[in-house]
Design brief:
This protein is 47% helix and 11% strand. It is mainly α. A three-stranded antiparallel sheet has the order 1-3-2.
């Protein structure tokens, strides 16, 4: 089964909405926590520790977004670590 990225399954041209394009490039903390089966607090700790890059959107402190590329990089690093063990 293929992993889906947030917003995947609809092309950017489906609605002409720029927000759909942007949503496809980022995970929310909650989405990533569900994907990795860990708590949102653990995702926050990874961000604070510099293990996972995040972007703060707007003045709301809860509006963190994690770039898909960063998630894929961490997943790749973890998969190669587990293969090397």
């Amino acid at each position: 089964m293929r992993a889906l990225h947030p917003g995947q399954g609809r092309s950017a041209g489906d609605s002409g909405d720029v927000a759909n394009v942007n949503a496809a490039r980022f995970f929310t903390v909650g989405q990533l926590a569900r994907r990795w089966s860990i708590s949102p607090r653990s995702i926050g700790r990874m961000i604070t520790a510099g293990q996972l890059p995040a972007v703060k959107l707007g003045p709301d402190r809860g509006a963190l977004r994690i770039p898909v590329e960063s998630v894929e990089r961490v997943e790749h690093e973890r998969s190669t670590e587990s293969c090397a063990s």
